[in-house]
């Protein structure tokens, strides 16, 4: 690692653990250089205006003021989740490392409340595929049961999507209802082009590399169903509290080995 890259990495390292300090010895071990080299690097950062200062004492070390090292960043919970999901799917590509780095930067400066909200939404997301992204963890084994109607529809031709603003608002309404645990009212076009109005208790988002689904309990069919997001013509949050259901409660007939839970971490 050349010096320029090391200086940048030092800032990111200190920002990630702020306000806790990290000693010169720890940093030297991390970057396989001497403590004197780290001390010279810290001095260079201070002279360039980076707010790094030393804390004395037994547990002292170098500390960075992370509030002053980046301009104000106001990522929403959904935006943080979007970066985390993209990072998970980026594994195996030339951009995997960059995606993880971007996620770490966002999390480092995000307010605790936004991070907690993002974590709640992330807990309701499942990635489905034969590959295992490194930024995911295995889903705990659960019972297998009848398929949530609609998952098999991934092999069907795509429905004509809603256009413009309506198409953008559908995922937002679903995401907000999932985190708030509210019943959704959907206009849904099935694979036979029949449109029905459904009251759905939303549980999770599930995505393959090609399709995304809303998993939930359909009151019209009185059972678990998976609704392809591109077939949802309209989605309205009714505000009605939905019963507390988990992914396992739906008994989705997808092998556990193919299901991953993305992590909100870089």
Précis, in short:
With 266 residues, the protein is of the alpha+beta class. It has helices at residues 3-17, 24-31, 35-47, 66-69, 77-89, 96-109, 112-122, 164-180; strands at 52-55, 61-64, 125-128, 136-138, 182-189, 195-207, 212-218, 223-228, 232-241, 259-262.
* Uncertain stretches: 131-135, 138-163
User: What is the count of DSSP helices, taking H or I runs of 4+ residues?
Assistant: 8
The percent range for strand residues is 15-25%
Give the C-alpha Rg: 23 Å
Structural class designation: alpha+beta
Sheet of most strands = 8 strands, mixed
Task: Name the helicity range.
Answer: 25-40%
How many β-strand runs?
Answer: 10
Compressed to H and E, one letter per element, the order equals HHHEEHHHHEEHEEEEEE
Distance between the termini: 21 Å
The global form is elongated
Task: Note down, in words, how this protein is organized.
The structure is a single chain. With 266 residues, the chain is α+β, with helices and mostly antiparallel strands. The chain is 36% helix and 24% strand. It contains 8 helices and 10 strands. The strands form 2 sheets. Strands 3, 4, 5, 6, 7, 8, 9 and 10 form an 8-stranded mixed β-sheet that branches. Strand 1 (52-55) and strand 2 form a beta hairpin. The chain is elongated and about 70 Å long.
